[in-house]
Amino acid sequence: DPVAPSVLLFPPSKEELTTGTATIVCVANKFYPSDITVTWKVDGTTQQSGIENSKTPQSPEDNTYSLSSTLSLTSAQYNSHSVYTCEVVQGSASPIVQSFNRGDC
């Protein structure tokens, strides 16, 4: 049976922003099967670039997978938008959506 992931979204640290870059990380933990899609949206617009995904091998304990997806922006890009959203879709299940508002961080 499919196992839905738990999804966590991490905004960039204030320390990183002072260096001119902004890295946002979306983590999907413990899902099965491995067929999963991550979509990044910034203020509702789907992002096509600056994204790197890395999937972990299947866990020997429970046969699940995990995935880390990173959206890389410049600090200026990051500061010019408000709402950052990570959508995780597994098969035909409804999306699991996590988002944050930059002003709340």
Automatic annotation (TrEMBL):
Keywords: Disulfide bond, Immunoglobulin domain. InterPro entries: Ig-like_dom, Ig-like_dom_sf, Ig-like_fold, Ig_C1-set, Immune_Resp_Modulators. It comes from the Eukaryota. Signal peptide: none annotated. Residues 47-63 have a biased composition (Polar residues). Residues 47-66 are annotated as: Disordered. Residues 5-98 form the Ig-like domain. The keyword Disulfide bond applies. PROSITE patterns: IG_LIKE. This is C region. It comes from Oryctolagus cuniculus (Rabbit).
